Structure formats: structure tokens, C-alpha cells
Amino acid sequence: xxxxxxxxxxxxxxxxxxxxxxxxxxxxxxxxxxxxxxxxxxxxxxxxxxxxxxxxxxxxxxxxxxxxxxxxxxxxxxxxxxxxxxxxxxxxxxxxxxxxxxxxxxxxxxxxxxxxxxxxxxxxxxxxxxxxxxxxxxxxxxxxxxxxxxxxxxxxxxxxxxxxxxxxxxxxxxxxxxxxxxxxxxxxxxxxxxxxxxxxxxxxxxxxxxxxxxxxxxxxxxxxxxxxxxxxxxxxxxxxxxxxxxxxxxxxxxxxxxxxxxxxxxxxxxxxxxxxxxxxxxxxxxxxxxxxxxxxxxxxxxxxxxxxxxxxxxxxxxxxxxxxxxxxxxxxxxxxxxxxxxxxxxxxxxxxxxxxxxxxxxxxxxxxxxxxxxxxxxxxxxxxxxxxxxxxxxxxxxxxxxxxxxxxxxxxxxxxxxxxxxxxxxxxxxxxxxxxxxxxxxxxxxx
Length: 447
Fold this sequence. Notes:
Blueprint: H1 2-26, E1 43-48, E2 53-58, H2 70-82, E3 89-91, H3 94-97, E4 112-114, H4 115-124, H5 128-139, H6 142-155, H7 178-189, H8 192-199, E5 202-205, E6 214-217, E7 236-244, E8 248-257, E9 260-269, E10 271-272, E11 275-276, H9 277-292, E12 293-299, E13 306-311, E14 322-327, E15 332-337, E16 346-352, E17 357-358, E18 366-374, E19 377-386, H10 394-406, H11 409-446
Parallel strand pairs: 13-17
Antiparallel strand pairs: 1-2, 1-9, 3-4, 5-6, 7-8, 8-9, 10-11, 12-15, 13-14, 14-19, 16-18, 18-19
Helix pairs in contact: 2-4, 2-5, 4-5, 4-8, 5-6
């Protein structure tokens, strides 16, 4: 008997152990994982273009050194100036190369290149000597080019940004913010030529007149692996990456998945265990985004979202009012974090522009809106419209109009005035009648 009890006890303990091991897994597989660890960077920004949705933002209040991301603006301004003459040859002069701080592609006075070569050297390769040569060749001087950079920043709404050079070489007067940097990066996303140049893994410069030319490799480790091995991400496209002592490792890139496009910015990142954290953070964020963010279809056009009572219309049910179905004119899709239970956790919270509605109401007339919550998070909204026409009931409208007239201020004033005038008239009439009566009495006494 005791052996049977021991076996039963051992079996029960085994089941409990298995349950204990599986319990956390069972209740976590459908839970949305936390956003990746971004503590290794001062600034992280993730934005979805189609829904204009900031998914994550860190470092909003900081005044930043623009560092290597300066070359995004350098590329945009240069494209504005030379996009129609990319194949035009340029002979490099001493003025174009007198500033050689930082990365260099080995340009020398007398080299013959095209604007296209210098653009690739600046945006794809991230070379400072190419950026300086491009600035002087396209605008005549560094100061003239930098002035155009600051003018374009203002035109994009980047009002807290000031550039002092076209490379991002440290200058305490060169400042920006995360918001401004995102505006410049979004402009680059929309520029086909910039995106094409910054997305190439390599580019052959053939025009140098001192040999067979050379190859420019993309400095962004998400795009190419020449400068940083082990970070390539097949979904990343453009925009630029680099590092400075003051600004740390930084990058801006765009990526696409399931028909959606994103902007990712990482600035002020360090290194840990031999890893460049700007790249590891970027890859973690990209992986998290494509796995747990996307579009959810929440309302189909014509579906009833709610109903509202409408006055002055014939009832269409057991209620005293006409119950009007409220819907949306078009299918509603929201961008949101989701897991396997998200479709079960959608909550629609309708609201209306007015406390009550009266007939007539036209089909498609805007009546209010609906806020869309998923797992308690506001993820979108849509306009509520009338699903059909509601004609006014003639008798109810007449009675309501009469009621309104009877209680209106104008009618009350009219009634008061009428009563007053009637009282005056009656009082005057009575006085005249009494006067006539007195006069007749006097006459009768005489005779």
C-alpha cells in the first residue's frame, strides 16, 4: 500500500514540476515583449511613415552634436545644386582640400572626378575630404555651402539646428535636436537619389587621373560589411552612419516590411564587448518592429459601430426615437503593436459632436468619431457617419416648431406686449366710458 502511495506521490510531483516549468511559457507566448534594451545609446528614435507614428523616442530634450549625420544634409543640399549635372567633371583644387580632418578617401589636388563621384564619396563612403570638395565645387566656398545647409534646415522646420561645416567634425557651435534630425532624415527618405546613393554597398570611382581608380565602400555597417563586420541587415536601406569622439557612434536608416516603411535613428552610442552598440541596437529594434508591429484591420466600411437616437423622426423600433446606425465611410486600419490576442482586445469608444440629433439627417453625414484602443492603448480613430438618410416626421416637426415658438423669447415678449397693450386699451376704454356716463348724468340733471 505504501509503495502505491509513493508511486502516486512521485507521479504527482512530476506533473507539478512539468507544469511549473511550462507555466511561464504558456502565459508569455502571446504577450508583447518589452522594447529592446537601448540603454547603450543616448538617443533612439523609431517612426512609421505611412501612419506618421512615433513608436519609440529617447533623448527628445537633449541638445545634440549632429556628428556624422550632418552629411545627410550635405548630401541633400548638394543634390539640390548638382542633380542635373552629376556627370560633370571637376578638377580638385587646393581650396577644395584644405580641410582634411577625419575620414579621407585620399583625394589630391589635380584629381579629376564627377559630382556623382563626390556624392558617393560623401554619402556612401562617409569621407570628409569628399564632403569638403563637394561643398566648394558646388557652391564656391565652404561658408556659402554651409549657409545653404542652414537655410534648408529652416525650410524643413529644423529651427534648433545649426551647422558649421559639411562633415560633422566637432564644433561646439554645431547643434541639433532629435526632432530636427528626424525632419532631415525624413527628407532624405523622400529623396530618390539620396536613398539610392546611401543604399549602395560599394561604388567604383573611375575618373581619378592617377591610376585605375578605386572603390568606395558604404560606411554603414547595416548596409555593407567593409568597415564593420557582423551587423548587415537585409531590410535596411540608406541613410548614413559614422562616429566622432564627441558624438559617439550614430546612424540613421530606413527599413521596410509588409508594405510599411520606418525611420530609425541611433545617436550617442558606445561600444561594449567589442560590439558597436549603434548597430546592435538598430538590429534589435528592426527585428522587434517587424515581429510585433503592423497594421490591424479593425472596422469595415458599413459595419455598425454604435447607434444614436434621432428626434423628430418616425420610430423604427420599440423605442420612442428613431435609432440611427453609425458607421465609418471607409475601412479602418490602425498601426499598432500586436500579439496573438490583439484582435480580441480591440475596444471602440464612440463619441458625438452634439448631445442630441434631430431629423433630417443625410446618409454619410459626420456625426462624431470613434477612438480605437488595443490592449488599453489608443491606436487610432475614425469619423462616425450616418449609415442612411433619416427623414423628418412632418407632424412631429410641426409640433416641435410650435412648442419652440411658444417658449421662445420673442413669443413671450410679444405676449407681454400684447397683454400690456390690451390692458392699456381696456383701461383707456373704461375711462372714456366712465367719462361719457358722467357727462350724460350731468346733462340729465340739467333737464
